[in-house]
């Protein structure tokens, strides 16, 4: 009567299937959500990771400087925002439930509001008034079993516009649909029954035809799968390819050049552990790989060997003849994911994990005929040698004019001064061929992703970014002329609200 | 005397056999009450299957008892009345759209509800060892659907 064998088969594997409550080892305490935050005095910056207790009602912000009249729209941001319930605190920054922050910029006036995304998990836990599900980095005592990965979906990583709505993105499950004005949650985004609950990264890229490229990684039950998608402007997954990776590497984002989609297959690989994060291990002996996929045919793939490393985010990728250059914020190890984000949540002394250096990887592209030839052969690596060009600039959250170009545009990102004890970002950088410009925000400010807002012509635009002043308990916005960030913000807005630090956003 | 003893033993033997015979239907009539809760869609049907032995459980074959119940609320109860004492394990699936199967996506991940006895398998299917339980007299258990 249970007609589907796969009901109990290995295909019923879920995101964290390697985790079984019976396999609690000696280190269980390190991932259990114990409320031990009071054992040491927290630093002031800890408020950035305390989370929010409830939605934020509309509030007018105090503005200064010159807000251009043509800059009208909404800045949306998403990030982990419910970090504790009933005395239980999450242990990893990735765990918190997502909240969409909206900054309404109209004729020089700026107002803010924020709403928690009403995921299935969030609603169940609101009703229970306690955490009920395990998360990416925390085991909850007596956690409910999960049907599929969407039961753990916190929708907390990014927010993008899509067909008149917003999509709040996680990376291991479905997007959530959000109404752009009210920020009400409209429901789970489905691209059809076949594609429900698939991992869907928080960093889709525009496909230039009104649709988007995206991917998901699936490492459960021994799989090393990269799912490559093209979503059409008609809202359908028009192409999908399952690519077997040589190693189950953590992957967060990808890049695109005119003809290629580029992935960094890191040395941080999924094995076994008590949580999803705990299952990732640093394996430098495996090295890293660059995977270059042909946009026209996902089966055409070029693999390139790289030294061990780890990355979340890319800058631009540009093809010049048969040469590909791709920019990436590259870490020498995965400490930021495996330890650093847990330490952030303690709010105590922080052993700064290694920072990301902005580097450029150059590699010769295989000719089309050669890629076709390789189709029928075992995976070939290292047919081409990559060159890494370092910048000595420590920079994350790279942003740029994402209109596809055959030349490198200026890239903007954030980093921390060397003497910044927290390692949290305080400086905006602009990297361009002519050199690097920087702007230091001052002590006691933590700055976030600098969004590039293009003007009508490529190369002209604004940088819009949020920050937290943890001395004055203010959250603010700074607007820069992208052509000259060193002169400082041309306009600012601030309010007496401490918003949880987030990850990614968009300007609509 | 010897015969008496023999007769007595025979008699005792017969009585034991008779008692056993009388008790047999009672032993097979243990009632297992299964409470099913956390049902997320109030439509479709619950399919509850009782297995005996790991091989049967793992292969989804040789169901010793089963029932199908229309879903109208967040919780339901099903009762099995003819189980002999022994070790069992239960699988439940919620066929929300009544198409006769547990719907899954491209990767085989269920998008409809399911559950196992003992609520084992927190992050996937429960093993037989996690799901098994013993019936020895009337019994009751609760399965939280996920």
Proportion of residues in β-strands of chain B:
25-35%
> How would you describe the shape of chain A?
globular
Poorly predicted runs of chain B are 1-27
CATH architecture annotation of chain B: Sandwich
**N-to-C CA distance of chain A:** 51 Å
Describe the main β-sheet of chain B briefly: 5 strands, antiparallel
Principal-axes geometry of chain B comes out as: globular
Number of domains of chain B: 1
- Overall mean pLDDT of chain B: 82
User: Quick one: biggest sheet of chain A?
Assistant: 6 strands, antiparallel
CATH class membership of chain B = Mainly Beta
Structure, explained:
The complex is a heterodimer of chains A (508) and B (146). Chain A is mainly beta and 508 residues long. Chain A has helices at 28-31, 120-128, 335-346, 368-374; strands at 56-60, 62-65, 73-82, 84-85, 88-89, 97-106, 109-116, 158-162, 165-169, 176-178, 185-188, 205-206, 212-218, 225-231, 237-244, 255-256, 260-265, 268-270, 280-282, 288-294, 301-306, 310-320, 323-331, 357-364, 387-394, 396-399, 411-415, 427-432, 435-440, 445-447, 451-454, 461-469, 474-481, 491-495, 504-507. Chain A has a domain at 48-398. Chain A is globular, with a radius of gyration of 22 Å. The model of chain A is unreliable at 1-39 (pLDDT under 50). Chain B has one domain (29-144): Sandwich (Immunoglobulin-like). In chain B, the strands form two sheets. In chain B, strands 2, 3, 5, 6 and 7 form a five-stranded antiparallel β-sheet that branches. The chains are: A mainly beta (508), B alpha+beta (146). The interface between A and B is large, with 37 and 34 residues.
Please describe the topology of this protein.
The complex is a heterodimer of chains A (508) and B (146).
Chain A: H1 28-31, E1 56-60, E2 62-65, E3 73-82, E4 84-85, E5 88-89, E6 97-106, E7 109-116, H2 120-128, E8 158-162, E9 165-169, E10 176-178, E11 185-188, E12 205-206, E13 212-218, E14 225-231, E15 237-244, E16 255-256, E17 260-265, E18 268-270, E19 280-282, E20 288-294, E21 301-306, E22 310-320, E23 323-331, H3 335-346, E24 357-364, H4 368-374, E25 387-394, E26 396-399, E27 411-415, E28 427-432, E29 435-440, E30 445-447, E31 451-454, E32 461-469, E33 474-481, E34 491-495, E35 504-507
Antiparallel strand pairs in A: 1-7, 2-34, 3-6, 3-35, 4-5, 6-7, 8-9, 9-10, 10-11, 12-13, 13-14, 14-15, 16-17, 17-20, 18-19, 20-21, 22-23, 23-24, 24-25, 26-27, 27-28, 28-29, 30-32, 31-32, 32-33, 33-34
Chain B: H1 2-28, E1 30-37, E2 45-51, H2 54-59, E3 65-70, E4 76-83, E5 86-95, E6 114-116, H3 128-131, E7 133-135, E8 139-144
Parallel strand pairs in B: 1-8
Antiparallel strand pairs in B: 1-4, 2-3, 2-5, 5-6, 5-7
